[in-house]
Each structure stands twice: as structure tokens, then as C-alpha cells.
Design a protein that fits this description.
The structure is a single chain. 0% of the residues lie in helices and 20% in strands. The chain is mainly beta. The protein has a domain at 3-43. The protein has a three-stranded antiparallel beta sheet, with no helix packed on it. Strand 1 and strand 2 form a beta hairpin.
Length: 70
Amino acid sequence: MDSLVVECLQCGTSRVARRDRFKHFESPECPECGYLGWAPVLELTETEPEPEPHAPPEPALVEHQLPSVA
């Protein structure tokens, strides 16, 4: 059976996921927290996503002063 090290997306616990007879990865719940989401450890990164190169500039906040009604 083929296996892969996966990490829980909730608590970060690593475990080994094995392929079943249909070549699908078994994805049991996390033994630590019970969460079902996981990802292969080799695909996870800790870096911040880079901004898009052609992202529009963020609009400047403009404060409007209301006239006094005294």
C-alpha cells in the first residue's frame, strides 16, 4: 500500500495516510482533535501569500466633516 504523511488543518498533528484498494487516500479523523481536514505535509507552507502584481491600489479613507446645526 502507498502511504503519505499528512497534517491536520486544525491542530497540525502529523499522521500517515494510506491508499485503499481503489487508490484513494484514507482520511480518518485526527487522533488528537477529531477534525477531518488534512493536507499532504509537502504541500503546506508557512509563508505569507504574495500580493497580486496588478492589484488595484487600496482607496484612501476620506473623513467627511458634517456641518454644525447650532
